[in-house]
Every structure is written in structure tokens, then in C-alpha cells.
Amino acid sequence: MKLILSAICFVAGFVMLNAQTKTIEVKDAQTKEILGGVYAINQNDEEDYRITENKTLKLEIGETYLISYMGYASERLKINSSSPEVIFLKAQNTELPEVLVSGKIFQDPVMNITTPDLTESVSQPKNVADLFRDINGFGLIKRGNYAIDPSFRASHYEQLNIQYDGGTKVMHACPNRMDPITTHVMPEDIAKIEVVRGPYTMRYGATFGGLINMVSKRPEIGKYGFSGNASSGFESNGGSQVQMLRLQYAEEKLDVVGMYGYRDFGNYEDGAGREIPSSFRSIDYNLRMGYNFSSLERLQLHWRQSFGRDVLHASLPMDSDYDDSSMLSLDYFKKRPGKTLRNIQAKAYYSYVDHLMSNSRRGNFNTVEAVSPVEATTAGGRFELEWKLDEFWTLFTGTDALLISRDGVRNRLVKQNPMGMPLDPPVAFIDKIWQNSFINDYGLFAESRYKLNSSTVLNAGVRYDLVHSDIQDPASDFQAYYPGLENRTEHNFSATVSLKKLLNADNQLEFAFGRGVRSANMIERFINHFQVGQDPFEYIGNPDLDAEVNNQFEVAYTGKKILDGAINRLDWGASVYFSHFENYIVAIIDPTKTRKFMPNQEPLNPKVFRNLEDAYKTGFEANFGIDFFNNFQFDAEVAYVYARNEDLSESLPLTPPLRSKFSLQYNKNKFWAATDLRVVSQQDELATSFGENLATPGYELVDFRLGYELTPGLNLGAAVLNAFDEQYYDHLNFAFRNQANANLSGMERLTDPGQNFTLFVKYAF
Fold first, then answer.
1. How many angstroms separate the CA atoms of 426 and 599, rounded?
2. Is 7 left (phi over 0), alpha (psi -120 to 50) or beta?
């Protein structure tokens, strides 16, 4: 009996011991400040996770936890009776904050996507298209091999808030968007892309359809001394080549990074063997210098220049003789531990684009010679304060500014009359393109994040934008259209509220509503009888446009499961959204106006930008992934959007079709390989008013890619793109324009490259 009682007491004592908890405080190792919101994950059971409440962690004795906090080195701790009651975490070297915080569920905005490091596992030379091609929900608006704009959920151009490094912008100078923001950066310098899928954050400028932040490659923390890497690549289709060199010097206080890139792309052949005018050359370089006053304070200067030469645009009326841009930005960040004011961020930047386009390589050059020097200046910045009002309450307040100005003309020398007879002497004309215009946006914002409990976060934000615009040198006919033309001031109010719920350590649910407001861009306001669309119509701006509004609702769910056996892991996710638009901006044929240039040519009536009364879009994205046999991974993604212009009973323009992607990857030791299948459906939902008159057929593409680490630091890559040489074009591609001398009809769309073999080598030292 005594033996039985002893056994019972021993078991009871053991159970009680293991049921006991120990209270732990977590402090900053330097300032001794208590850290709130520390995250602890049980290493034996990831479903057991803790968030500090009342500034302490209650952890089970006998368990091992990973203690982590943003900006600090994580600590692994085995809890027992002798464990310390206070844990000190060391602050990591200060880096300028990004929009997203690398998977910190209580600090990231809702409805976000972050790509893996785009500088890793490359197998072919990078073009700007490679930045967005593999992000679910994205499409590419192409006018050639250079002027490529991202499209996301049928939002495009200024409907997307596209920026570098949390706020820096470079706006295009060309009215035909020969030089979108993606052309002013080296793709190799972009480490990752962060996306907020709607107007769900107020902190980074006015956001209508989504926020896209391209994050530059940064100095590697703790990698002191001199280092760098060099790469070279080749593509068979077009005989294209890419060269890149990156050098870095870093010490505890100072780091300097410099990059140089050269790319020479030739005309490619499509799947039918036709040569598509698409060649270009570019040289880019940048210099980034950072100084750490302490582990909590950093100042960074970034200088970047890009030079494009002899850029051919198969789907635009002219080509780019040169496209030069310069950008300078200054960033400051300071963390203030132990204070209600926790962080200070400041950014200022300036960019300038000098662009020249001409028709000297086109068939109509003998009839009329056209040269257009244009320029764009973008300046701005942001200032933000982060406040810790309570253990579970964080408030962001701040202000930002975006100042855009453009000017430029088209110089025409008409050599023949409409009957084809030569004019002697030729007649010269000067057409005002931008009419010396500007748009200045000054914003104020506040965004609050409150932890309702250890698994739920409520986020709410408001934003006010004061938008001031003016046209300082209007053409006489534009002045006649709008006789009361004067500077204009708009007041825009945006807001968002969202809820993020961690169901358990592996499953997350998100609800969000956002009201994003966007004032009309400069093309929509001030363009005057220029062809800036996919169709052959002349377009006329409207300085009286109301700001368009996106009221977007979204629900998203993500989950994962770690398994034992042949299947190692499952990942899944889905998102469903609906947007109701107010004052959506489109261009509609105006029968009261007539064509200005070549007045006898069809179509005779131009388009004028107007506001719609009734428009909406809805859609979804879904993904599924499975890791198996330790080295294999299969991923499937699908995205669909349906957009409707009820005023004209048609689709909204540039709405992509259903897209799917299937990828099988193998990765073991120094070798990896992947096969991608892209399936794009037919698009028969058309915006005929935009020039979308024929359904675009679907297509399937297969790519093969592989890479091998030959020696430490030396990586080789190869790929076969469009392996079966399919002739295809995407619904978002523009039509061929002014390509009679290349035997390409303006009745068909730009076709994409056919089969392409690539080689790539990268060496890091």
C-alpha cells in the first residue's frame, strides 16, 4: 500500500510540476526597457504560442520556447525552476524599416504578399517583367520589351501606388508610358516586392487599387569588410546579354554599396518566327551609403541613375532615342526605447527624367518627322512617428508629399501634304504635350493597431490628401474646351478598418475594408489630342474630373500543416474581394469634337476622359502548395477578376483573363530544378470603347529552369522559356503601332517571345 501511495504522490507531484508556469519579463539588453508584445513559440508544440500580457510571459516549466521581438535577436530558452526571471534581448543592427515586417503577423498590414528574395535562385537574365511575372494576381501591360507596366486585379498605372523602399517615386515623362517606374531601376537590385492588395494602409501615400513596394538589396547585417558579386547572362532569342557588378564595404558604423548594370537586348522572334522590333540598351548604376549612429539610429543616402538608349517600342507610334533618369533619396530612422514615442522615420527624395522620342525608325518618317523632348520631375518625402500608447496599442501618425511636374512638346516637320505631294519647304509645327503642368499631393495620416487579445489585431486608419493642380501653358484649343481653366484644389478622404485573427499557430483569417481615393493623373487631366491608349483614337484630358474612389471589401484565409512521412508540409490560402467604384475614370468618344492631327483619318472623333457613375470589380486568388519526399515542392496558383462598366454595359479596360500557374521544384544540396506551366484563359469580356474589339485567345506556356552551385559562391543557371515555341499574346498587350516597314499589322496585338534558351552565371566574393 505504501508503495502505491508513494507512486501516486510521485505522479501527482510530477504532473503538478509540469503544470507549473514561470513568469518571465523580457527587456532590452542595452536600455533595460521592458518589451511589450514579445512573441514566444513552444518549440515542441507550435500551436502553443504566447504574447506578453501585463508586460510578462507565463511559460510552462519543462518546455522550450523561442522568444522573439521585431528588431531584436531571438533567444531559445528552456524553462525550469532555475530559469532567470528576466531575459535580455539584444537589438540587431538598425535597418530602415520596410512596409512589411517579414511575416510578423501582429505588425504587417492585412492582405499582404511578400515575394522571396528575387536575387536568389536566378536562372536567366532579368528584365523588368521578371519582377512581377510570378506574383499571383499580377499581369503585364506590354508595349515592347522595355515599356512594361504591372497590372494587379485590373488596376494599373496610377491606380497602383508603386514606390521604392517605402516611399521613393520616379514618375514617367512620356505620355505613352515608354518609361514607367519599373524601367528606372536595375532588376538585380530589387531583393523583394511587398504588396498590400488594396487600400488597407494609409501610411504610404494615397492608395487606390494596391500598394507595391520594391525593396532594394541592402547591406548584409554583420557581414563586415569588403564583399560583392558579379553576374553575366545571355538569352538566345534576340542575342541579349546582361552584366552586373555589386560591391559592398561594411563596418559597424558605416556601410557603402555600389552597383553597375549593363543590358543589351536585341529584337526577339515570336513563336511564328517574326522579328519584333524590341531592342534596347541601358546602363544603370547606384550608390547607397549608410551610417549607424548607434544600433538604434541610422541615416542613409541613395543615388541612382539610369540611361536607356535606342529603345524600340513595337506597340507605340514612336521609339525612345534616350531615356535618362536620376534619383536621390535620404532616409533617417531612430528607435526610442523606453519612451511613448517609439520610432521616428523621415524620407526626402528627388527624381528627374529626361526623355526623347522620335519616329526616325518608322515608315511614316518620310511623310512627317516627329521629335518629342519631354521631362518629368518628382519630389517628395514622408515623416512618421510611431507611438506606444499602451501595452497593446500602437499609433502611427505622419505626413507625406508627392510633387509631380511635367513639360515638353512634339516638334513636327510635315514633308508631304495629304495627297502625298512633297512640301517645299516642309511645314513646322509645335504641339504642346504636357502644357507645363503640375500636380502636388500633400497628405496627413493616422493609423492605429490594437491587440484585442493574444490572437486578434484590429487595425484602423484615416488619411487626408490636399491635391493642388495647375496647367501653366495651355494650348489655345485646350483653353477653348475649358474656358474657366485655372488652378484647382481637391480634398480627398480615405479610410480603412481591418481585423486579423490568428486561429492557431498555423491558420489565419483576415477581414478588411478600405476606401481609397485617387485624383486624376496628368494624362487624364491635361493630355491634348495625343494617342495614349491601346486604340488609334486621339485623347483629350479633362481638368474637371472628380477623384475616383475604390470601396473594397476582402476576406482572406491562409493555413499550413507540418506532417511526418512522405508529405512534409501543406500550405494553402484564398482571398475574395469586391470593389464598388465611385467616379471611375475612363475615356469615352465625344461626337462633338473632331480629330486635330491628320483630320481626314479615322477615327474622326476623339475620346475625352469622363467619370463613370456605376462600375465595380470582384474576384479571387487562391494557392496551394505541398512539400514531399524532403526535396520536392509543388505549387498551384489561380487568379480571376471580373470588372464591369455598367454605364456602357461592357467590361472595364485592361481586365486580365483567368490565370493559373503550376510549378514543380526539386532542391537538394547544391542543385535545384523547376518546371512551370502557365495556363491563361480566353478573354471575351471586352471594353470595346477602349479598342478591345476581339476576344483574345488563351495559351499555355512551359518553362524549364535549373541551377547549380559549382563552388562556394559560384552559381550557374540555365533555362528554356516558352519551351514549345508557342505563338501567343496576352490580353494586356497593346497592338502593333506604326510598324508598316516591319510588316506588322496594326490590327493585331504585340506577340510575345518564342522559344528562348538562357544561361546565367553569378559569383559572390
1. 18
2. alpha
User: Exposed e or buried b for every residue in 51-85, given b needs 16+ CB within 10 A?
Assistant: bbeeebbebbebbebebbbebbeebebebeeeeee
Tally of CB atoms within 10 A around 17:
12
What amino acid occupies position 98? Answer: E
Largest CA distance in the chain: 124
**What does the block give as the cell for 678?**
502557365
pLDDT score, position 48: 63
CA 385 to chain CA centroid, Å, is 24
- Rg of the chain's alpha carbons, rounded to an integer? 28
Q: Give me the half-sphere count of Cα atoms (radius 13 Å) on the Cβ side of residue 727.
A: 11
Domain ranges of the chain: 21-89, 128-764
Distance from chain centroid for Cα 660: 20
Which residue's C-alpha cell is 536607356? 308
Q: What's the chain's average pLDDT?
A: 90
Instruction: Write the single-letter amino acid at 330.
Output: L
Contact at 8 Å (CB) between 661 and 636?
yes
CB neighbourhood size of 494 (10 A):
23
pLDDT value of residue 11 = 44
pLDDT value at position 123? Answer: 81
Q: Which residues of the chain have pLDDT under 50?
A: 1-19
The answer to whether residues 226 and 255 touch, using CB atoms and an 8 Å cutoff, is no
Residue 15: how many CB atoms within 10 A of its CB? 10
Q: Write the CB contacts of 243 (distance below 8 Å, at least 6 apart in sequence).
A: 231, 232, 261, 262, 263
Residues contacting 480, CB < 8 A, separation 6+: none
Among 433, 432, 428, 460, smallest CA distance to 447 is for: 460
CA 514 – CA 729 distance, rounded (Å) = 34
Q: Cα(556)–Cα(577) distance, rounded to whole angstroms?
A: 9
Residues comprising the chain, all counted: 765
Pick the CATH number of 128-764 from 2.40.170.20, 3.30.420.40, 2.102.10.10, 2.40.50.460: 2.40.170.20
Q: What is the pairing mode between strands 210-216 and 160-164?
A: parallel
**Distance from C-alpha of 553 to C-alpha of 198, rounded to nearest angstrom:** 9
In whole angstroms, give the CA distance from residue 417 to residue 102.
Answer: 62
CA atoms within 13 A on the CB side of 713: 7
Asked whether 753 and 268 are in contact (CB, 8 A), the reply is yes
pLDDT at residue 41, rounded to an integer: 78
Q: How far apart are CA 252 and CA 376, in angstroms?
A: 38
Measured CA to CA, the distance from residue 153 to residue 729 in angstroms comes to 19
Q: Give residue 672's identity as a one-letter amino acid code.
A: W
Q: What does the pLDDT look like over 455-498, one tens digit per residue?
A: 899 999 999 999 999 999 999 999 999 998 989 999 999 999 99
- Record: fold of 21-89: Immunoglobulin-like (2.60.40)
In this structure, the number of other CB atoms found within 10 A of the CB of residue 408 comes to: 22
**If you ran DSSP here, which 8-state letter would residue 35 be given?**
P
Q: Are 545 and 517 in contact (CB under 8 A)?
A: no
- Confidence (pLDDT) at 92: 62
Q: What is the pLDDT of residue 110?
A: 82
The amino acid at residue 307 is: F
Per-residue pLDDT at 97: 67
Residue closest to 624 by CA, chosen among 663, 566, 676, 665: 663
Neighbours of 505 (CB within 10 A): 16
- Helix, strand, or coil here: 463? strand
Q: Which residues pair with 651 in a beta bridge?
A: none
Q: Give the N- to C-terminal CA distance of the chain in Å, as an integer.
A: 73
Predicted confidence at residue 46, as pLDDT, reads: 59
CB neighbourhood size of 265 (10 A): 24
Neighbours of 167 (CB within 10 A): 24
What pLDDT does 438 receive? Answer: 97
Identify the helix (H) or strand (E) that includes residue 290.
Answer: strand 280-294
Question: What count of other Cβ atoms lies within 10 Å of the Cβ of residue 228?
Answer: 15
